[in-house]
Please model this.
Amino acid sequence: MRLRFLAVLCLITFSLAFAQTDPLTPSAKYDPAVPTLEKFLGYKLGGDFTPHHQLTAYYHALAAASPRVKVEPYGKTAEGRPLNLVVITSPENHARIADIRAAVARLNDPRKTSQADADAIAASTPVIIYLSYGVHGNEASSAEAAMQVAYELAASQDAANLERLQNSVILIDPLVNPDGRERFVQGYRSVKGASPVSDRFAAEQSERWPSGRFNHYLFDLNRDWTWQSQQETRARITAYRAWSPQLHVDYHEMGAGSTYHFAPPADPILESLNTPMLRKWFDIYGRANSQAFDRHGFRFFTKEDYDLFYPGFGDSWPLLNGAVGMTFEQGGGRAGLALELPDNQRVLTLYDRALRHFVTSLATSDATIKNRVDRLKDYYAFRKAAVTAGEQSPERYAYIVPSGDSERAEKLVNVLLRQGIEVHRLAAETDVARLTDYWGLKHATRKVPAGSYVIDMAQPLGFLVRALLEREPKLESTFFYDVTAWSMPYASGVEAYLGGAGTKADLRPVTAPITRKGSVEGGQEVAAYVFSSEPIASVRLLAALLQADIRVYTSTRGFKQAGRDFPAGSLIIPIETNPPQLGAKVRELAEKAGATVYAVSSGRSESGVDLGSNRVRFLRKPKIAIVMDSPVSPSEYGYIWHAFEQQYGVPFTPIKAENLGGADLNSYNVIILPPDSGDGRGYQRVIGGMGSRLTDWVRNGGVLVGIRGGALFAAKKRSGMTSVNFKFLSRAAEEARIEEERSAPKKDETPSSEPPPPPPSKEEQEKARAASLERKLRKYADKEKELQKEQVPGAILKTNLDNTHPLAYGMGDQLAVLNNDAPILELTDKGDNVAYFPKEGVKLSGFITPENEKKLGHTAYALRERVGRGFVIMFADNPVFRGFWDATDRLLLNAIYFGRVTIPGVD
Ligand SMILES: [Zn+2]
Model:
C-alpha cells in the first residue's frame, strides 16, 4: 500500500518535472480531440519541413476540432497559394468578435475617441496579438513553430491558457511567404538523403538560385510593408488593418553561427519610435523572453544588428501604426534538418530552431496579456501623440502637386491611402507661406494649384506620414541594416513641398484610390495619332502598340499640334505605314494604358518639326532578353521582372546567364545584364567565355544595357566593350580593383584625351600624410566603424539629367536616384553622359560621408556609348528598385525603346 502510494507519488512528481522541463508541452493537460502535429503530420515538431498544403490542412484540422480556432483566408500569392490568418481566442470571444474588433478600432482615432472612452475600452477589451511566421521562405523553422503555437493555444486545458484566450485574440499568420518557402522546401527535398547529412557543405545545406527568401517576383516581403508593391503585401495590410493589433512579431532566421535575437532592437531607431514609452515596451518584451530562455539555458542577444530605421519592415511599420513591432531571429536559416556548426560546437536541428520560436511566441504573447490594459492604452497614446506632434510641427502639411505626369502623384497617394493615411485635395488654388521643396529651396510664399494633394501630419498615422514624406530621417548612427533614405516624393519623382497651412484652404477628402483611363481625342480626318512622351503611361502604351505590331515613331525635336506642345521624345503613329482600322486599336490600347492620344488631321505641325521630318525616327520593336540566374542578384532581377510584367507590360525572355553563350543572340536586339550579387566579376566568370560574341552582337546593332555589375562587365578594363573606367567607394573593393587591373594582361590602350591632373600642392601632400598616419595608428576597435562609414547604404543623391537625350525623354532636368554602394562610373568622353552627379551638393537624403560625396562628384549615373552599329548603355545602380522608386524606372524603359535613337549626323 505504502509502496504503491510511493509509486504513484513518483509518477506524479515525474510528470510534473517533465512538464516543467519539456518546453514543447508547457501545459499539464491537453484536449485529446485536438490533433497534435505528430498525429496529423506523422512527425513531431522539427521532424521535417512541412509543405504549404499540409501546413494549411493542419490549421483547418485544428479549426474543425476546436471552437477556439478559425481560419480566415485573406488573399492569394502570385503563384495562387492561399494566404490565411488563423484566429485563436476563447469561444466566448469568437461569439462577439465583431464587437471586439469594433472596440479596438475605436482606439485608432484619438480625435474621435476620448481618453475616458479609451481607458474604458482598454479595461474591458481583449488585446490583439499578431504573429507572422516565415516572411522569408528559406528561414523555414518559424512556420513549423507556428503550428506548435496554434496547437498549444487550441489544445491546452490549463487555467492559464483559458485566461490567456479570454484576454486576447491571437492572430497567427502561419506563412507570410508561401511561394518562397515552397521553393525552399521542394529544393531541399529534391537533394536530401534518406537521413539528414549535417555536413555544412552538403547539398541539402545550400539552396539553388534564387533561394526561398523572396516571393514569386523575388521581392523581399520584409521590405515591402509600406510600399505594398506585391499582392501578398496588399492583401496582408488589408487584413492587418482590419484587426488593429497591439503587437506584431515577425519571425525570422539569421546565419547558423548566431544564437537568437529579440528586443530591444539595435540603433538607429527612427526618431518617432525612439521614445521612453516604446523603450519601456522593448524592455518588457526583452525581459520576458530572456527569462523564458534562461529557464531552458538557451543563448540569445539583444540590441545588436537589427535596427528600426527603414519603415518598410515588419517591425517598424506596425510600430508606426501604434503596435509594438519586433523582429525575432533564430540562427540557422537556410539550413537543412540538421547542421553541424563549425568547430564542432553542436548539431543544430530544425527542432532546436523551431522550439526557440515556439518559446518566444508564448512568452511574448503572455507578456502582452499580462500588460494588456497598458498595451491597449499605449496603442491609443501613440496615435494621440502622432496627432499632437503633427499639430506642433512647423512642417505640418505635405503638398503633392500633380504637375507634369499626374500618374506619379496618383500612385503616391494610392500608396498612402492603402495604409489608411488620410489625404485631402485642394478644391481651389491656395497661397501657402514658408514652403520647402525637395531640392532644398525655401519659398516665402507660393501658390499651390487646385487639385494638389494635401497630407496633414496631425493624424493618427502622423508618424508614419512623416517617416514616408519627410525629406530626410534624422541620422545618429553609421550602422544601418537597410537603406537610409526612401522619401516618397523623391522616389515618385513628384513636385512636392513641406510647410504650414494654406490660407483658407478648401480641403476635400480623397476617399477612394485614384484610377485612370486613357482616351483618344480629336478629329475625324486623321493623318496620325500623337501622344506626349511625358506621362509614364506613354511608355505603357508604346509597349502595347509595338507588341501589336503597330509602327510608331519618335520625334527627336519638339513640335506643336492641335494647339498642344509635344516635347522631344513624343510619339507618332502615322496612318501611312500602319494597317487599316488603326483608330479602334489605338483607342483600345490607349484606354488600357491610361494614356491620352490625340488624333491630328495634318502632318504639318504648327511649330517645330513636321511629322514626316528626318528628325522623326522609326522605333524598332524590341526583342528583349534579360539575363538571370547566378551570378545575377535575385531581387535586382526581380525588380525589373515585376516592373516590366506588372507595371509596364514589357515582354521579355528571361535567359539564364550560363545559357547566354549558347543562345542565338540574333533573336534579341536588347540584352539587359542586371546587377550581379557582387562587383561584376561574376559576369566575367559566367559569360566571360563568350569571347567577343556579345561585342560583335552590339557592333551589329544590338543594345546592351548593363546595370551596376552588368555595367562593369562592359567597362574598358573588363570586357573592353566600352571606354568607360570605374572605381569603388569602399577601400577594400577599390584595392581589389587595383589588384585586378595590375594582374590583368596588358592591352594596347589609346592614351586618354584628358590632360594629366596637376601635382598636389605642398599643403595637400602634408594633409594626406597626416591622414595616412592617423589611419595607421587607429585603434583596432574603430576599424568596424570606419568600414561602415565607407558605405553608402542607400542614400538619395542628386543627378543632372540631359533630357534632350533619348535616354531621358519625357523626364525633367534633375533626378533623385538611390545609391546603394554603387560603383563609380567615370564620365565617358566617347559617348553621352545622360545622368551625372553634380560636382557639389550630391546628397539629398540619407547617409553618405562628405568624402564619398566628393568622390561621386562629376561621375556618371547613366551613360551611352556607341559601339559599331549598336550601343552600350550603362547604369551605376539599378534604376528599378523595390517596386516603388518610380522616378528612375523611366531611364531603363527609355533605354529599351529609345536606346538606338539618334539625331541624324549626331552620334
Ligand atoms: Zn529574415
About this structure: The CA atoms of residues 72 and 795 lie 40 Å apart. The chain has 29 helices and 39 strands. The radius of gyration is 30 Å. The chain has four domains: 61-385, 393-509, 519-618, 624-739+788-898.
